[in-house]
Amino acid sequence: MLNYFPEEVLEHVFDFLTSHRDRNAVSLVCKSWYAVERFSREKVFIGNCYTISPERLIARFPRVRSLTLKGKPHFADFNLVPHDWGGYVQPWIESMAKAGVNLEELRLKRMLVSDESLDLLANFFPNFKSLVLVSCDGFSTDGLAAIASNCRFLRELDLQENEIEDRRGQWLSCFPDSCTSLVSLNFACLKGEVNLLSLERLVARCRNLRSLRVNHAVPLDALQRILAQAPQLVDLGIGSFVHDPDSEIYNKIETGMQKCTSITSLSGFLDVTARCLPAVYTICRHLTSLNLSYAPGIYSDELVKLICHCNKLERLLVLDTIGDKGLGVVASTCKELQELRVFPSDLYGVGNAAVTEEGLVAISAGCRKLNSILYFCEQMTNAALIMVAKNCPNFIRFRLATFNPTAPDAVTMQPLDEGFGAIVKSCKGLKRLSVSGLLTDQVFLYMGRYAKQLEMLSIAFAGDSDKGMLYVLNGCKKLKKLEIRDSPFGNAALLADMGKYETMRSLWMSSCEVTLGACKTLAQKMPRLNVEVINESDQMEASVDDKHKVEKMYLYRTLVGPRKDAPDFVWTL
Amino acid sequence: MERASAYENDLNLKATELRLGLPGTDESSEKQSLRNNKRSSAEMDNSCEKNEQESSPAPKAQVVGWPPVRSYRKNVLHQRNESDLSGMFVKVSMDGAPYLRKIDLKVYKKYPDLLKALENMFKCSIGVYSEREGYNGSEFAPTYEDKDGDWMLVGDVPWDMFITSCKRLRIMKGSEAKGLACL
């Protein structure tokens, strides 16, 4: 009977499916559903830009309007991947421009973006509305100027943690007077100055502006004038919050903040005088999201004074200067907390022990709705992890990093196997896990046995033998991304179940025991995987034999074979 | 230990060496926990102690990519530490006052703001700066000690240069300050 179902009706039904996973599933039902789905698909998510080519994307989804692309492997964030490894957006933009795709939205993560790409984007897609760049680089403020000048209907320009070259042009002034469509503008990561008058005028004429995050070059007095123009803001990222608290400007800011009753998300404070913080106490009561992780020099007492006003908080990002005591205050104040990230303020970890397992336990006891955590700490214990697992069984993301990557239980000196075991056993919905500390094969046995929903796993300096990796590969049925560094997993583990890698997005292994020969075997047996070996030393190809251990290996499933843009130091086997 | 003596004769690098782990822990306990990753699986049966003896006492280097912090965040932190944005408190003394005060120079954007704040704090009148006359005519003149230990008149150099070189402030009686205003 489904044959007589008019396509328009099917299309209408599919419109209600917003998740790309649902749409992917629907397209596999039968040929006619595949056809209807592909013509009606507007949003496409590509988790690895080398899995497919732009041409095939456009062929299958000609009506695509919104594209999300991810480039470099996750460990590129930690300087483990050479800068020019790949992940260029240029071919995608070129192909879409050529094919006349009506692109409206582009979201990129860990990709190389050039000014040329941004220029193409700005000039060939008349309806372009939204650009979101996360952890990208390769472009400058000239590219931003092109976007500002030419995208007549721009709604969103969101730049998160990108390295952007500052060319001292006046990119912000390039938004024409006719531009009134901005809803979201985030340039917090920009290093250089912006024209403050242009910014104020832009904010004044964009009446729909909901989200504004400025960089450190926007001082407090400019902020005060901006807030006066935009009391409708929902999300605010403050630049510089430095002023004499006894001044008139400061008083103006205080009263200005009182008028901003819609702000539920606050971030920035890229430069701050702690004595100025009380000005924001009035908005704290409404906040659901607070990011102080880039705010320098605010110590525990001052943080606490701020946070104790934030009882609706659902998301909190802070530095470890908050201390265990500060986390205790969070635990008793923020009963709605779902996500917490505690970042290191001192990268070498030789300062005072800022947060320990006690802070984590306190949070778990007070914030029962917690489902996502990223925690950098001096030390951890099994007892603490077991307690956390008991208090918070709803974790979806659990990421722990001890400053010493092989730190044992600080009290018993045992491995942290039991602690993490408790986490995976208790948190049945766990999708993402990063482990750290002294760990044996046992922890992986627990993962294989209990972490049935796990999709992404990060392992560093852990395990004793191939058995560890095998437990995970065999047991974690939903595993999509596995990244391993400095762990004694070798060829036996790599080659035991080669078909598994076609069910995953990617596997990264660096400083492990895997040899070149094994990688070659894998590449030969699995044509639908790209097995890339990154070799940064100056050895010539001829002198490297198969018994040689590979420094870095990255493999991923693909439908388009080896990529053509790989640099010299990347060998696709 | 051999290494300790090498350090003692040197620049006392040990005091400032970067290493993983809590301050106060010694190297041998650290070696036990830091894994030697180059062993093959056949050697797995051996105990940790054997590996400790085998691993060479290499200098404690920063582990690449650990802690796993995004390089963007790392770069921001590095720049921060270099420019020390957590406040620039300097002592301020005034001739005749019983005790000193402290102010945070970072809070002020330019000289007039600073001078006004000083006037408020000490209930004095400092007046207006002029390149030629300094603060001639006013009751008090603001001076500062720079990085070289010299006493300078406040206002001569650009503000940004001033706040990085100012170590402390002294509000001098106008009569004494006349000498500083000379070209």
TrEMBL record, chain A:
It is found in: Nucleus. Pfam families: F-box_5, LRR_6, Transp_inhibit. GO terms for cellular component: nucleus; SCF ubiquitin ligase complex. Transmembrane segments: none annotated. It comes from the Eukaryota. One of its GO terms (biological process) is pollen maturation. Keywords: Auxin signaling pathway, Developmental protein, Nucleus, Ubl conjugation pathway. CDD domains: F-box_AtTIR1-like (cd22159). PANTHER family: F-BOX/TPR REPEAT PROTEIN POF3, PROTEIN AUXIN SIGNALING F-BOX 3. GO terms for molecular function: auxin binding. It comes from Fraxinus pennsylvanica. Residues 5-46 form the F-box domain. This is F-box domain-containing protein. Pathway: Protein modification; protein ubiquitination.
Automatic annotation (TrEMBL), chain B:
Its main location: nucleus. GO terms for cellular component: nucleus. Residues 87-174 form the PB1 domain. Residues 15-64 are annotated as: Disordered. It is found in: Nucleus. InterPro entries: AUX/IAA_dom, AUX_IAA, PB1-like. Keywords: Auxin signaling pathway, Nucleus, Repressor, Transcription, Transcription regulation. Homodimers and heterodimers. Aux/IAA proteins are short-lived transcriptional factors that function as repressors of early auxin response genes at low auxin concentrations. This is Auxin-responsive protein. It comes from Fraxinus pennsylvanica.
